[in-house]
Amino acid sequence: MASSVCDSCKRRKVKCDLSDPCSNCRISQLHCQYTAVPSKRGRKRRPPRNQDRDTQIEPAGLGDIGISQREAPRTPSVRELQLPSFPRTLRVIPEPPFTVPVSFSSEPEGVFSNLVADVAAIAPNDEIAAIVHRCLDLFVQYLFPTCPIIHESTFRSLAALYFTRGHSTPGSSVSLQPPELTETIHKKEFALITGLCAAVASVMPEFLMPHQHLLTQSFLNASRIMLRMYCDYDLEYPDSSSLLIRLWHSAALQNSTGKAGAAWHALGEATLLAQKLRLYEESSLSRFSPIESQTLRATFWQLFAADKSAAAFEDRPIVLHPLVFYGDLTLQDIGNQNIPLLDVRQDHCQFGFEDRLLAGFRLKCRVWSLGGDLIQQIKLYSRQKTDGLDAKVELARLTETYLRFTGLIDDLPQWLQSFEADPNASETDTFAYQRSSFWVQRSNILTSYHCLELLVLQRCIKYGTLEDMGLSSQLLSVSTRKLEIVRDFVRELHMAPFVCLKVQGEASVERIRHIGSAVLEITETVDDNNVKERANVLFKKLLDFLARLNSKASDELASSQPHPAIR
């Protein structure tokens, strides 16, 4: 077994198993060689002037982000800075994935050429144009139902513009000439289309997109590097692409690595830019074109739902809240100038397909918005009771919100209740296509709803508001109610085709993990054998789904010490 990564894995910045040939090279049908000599990273260590001098802390891995090799100013010692002393033994932090490869050029044309070469090495039998269009096809079918934030024709035009110039052949990057990338608009478009490809590849199963993990890395690196080339301008003059690129970077990072820090940072930038654009005000969209306005509207509600989700799970404080807006939240669900986002010439867009998807998307946003509000109101009501204040008004508001939340899915649209063939549909393929999209949407809405049901119950227990909400505070009754919610949740998991869960990425895993932790708590705190038996059966089913989803976050969770609470 080799002691360092092979040449191909090193160039592509992927993990190598050090075998001969390694698994990555076998999959990609590449010649596997171990000829590169490992180089030391970081700055050269200065010899200490005195033997008892405090150890200086050097930054690690700067070479990975293309820092110039010229001499840097001397770093002051810990003693010179007069900082408090630190332990001599520091925890070694592993190098994060998706650092920018040294081989990537700092010129736009070089980024393009390196991407084409990488994709040709990963998938030698496919043209990069075919892969990009495949990503668009998969987005429309599996991601658009829960995130309708693209204008399909525009993105197909971008794919044709940047990836079908010249006459390329499978595995060849010679005849595919770099497009014009000198203007900021060109860099934006390139970062946008490659960001979409990275997000799509990060959630697709292998049978829908072979080599999806390697493709995610290549497209994500190219998109992130290109964004850095005009990042300052983008922050000053944001538009819909500014939000979408960061949203897709966040998704690709979270789904491919399981590391939430970088993913939340990218999503946080998108959230702040939405505030900068004042997208919470309906009047703010009047200065944009109809397509841009519709994209910004859907993107804001997507970010709004994501923000509510983060606050509900207590991942981070809420950011998009009316109390921190400079104006009122007046943005409507539907605009006055709605134009089709999907390509109406396609067969799968028949029978009001897009209108139904948009109606389901609005229901999804209402679920998270109302559920998040309910959780916040429970906390506020508890504080007022604790402070001895008259909380009757707050209790009435809390009760009203709770009743509205419990009735949210009573009027679930008919097309999300029954998946029988439409008698007016003459194309079997069209029905199958639409059914898969509706399954993604249904499973997303209902698993989110049941997860929020459990979160609401847990917050009532935590803040002592069960009886105020008309619920029993007895341990057995509470445990039974939890299991009823879990049963409904598991039933939705079993009903949906597995691919419709897989394409929801780490968000789906997060919901399953949180439900599983509640079931595990029941098995450890309840003495009733019947309840324990039911909990164990449900817990095994949840574990089976987690194993099949092959979550990167679960891998990260398993390798971390100490283990955080399972969500």
TrEMBL record:
Q: Which Pfam families match?
A: Fungal_trans, Zn_clus
One annotated GO biological process: DNA-templated transcription
Keyword tRNA processing annotated? no
Under Gene Ontology molecular function, one entry of this record is: DNA-binding transcription factor activity, RNA polymerase II-specific
Transcription keyword on record? yes
> Where does the Zn(2)-C6 fungal-type domain lie?
5-34
**InterPro entries annotated for this entry?**
Carb_Metab_Trans_Reg, XnlR_reg_dom, Zn2-C6_fun-type_DNA-bd_sf, Zn2Cys6_DnaBD
Region: Disordered, residue numbers: 37-74
Sorted alphabetically, the keyword list is: DNA-binding, Metal-binding, Nucleus, Transcription, Transcription regulation
Signal sequence extent: none
PANTHER family given for it? GLUCOSE TRANSPORT TRANSCRIPTION REGULATOR RGT1-RELATED-RELATED
- What is the protein named? Zn(2)-C6 fungal-type domain-containing protein
Organism, by scientific name, is: Aspergillus lentulus
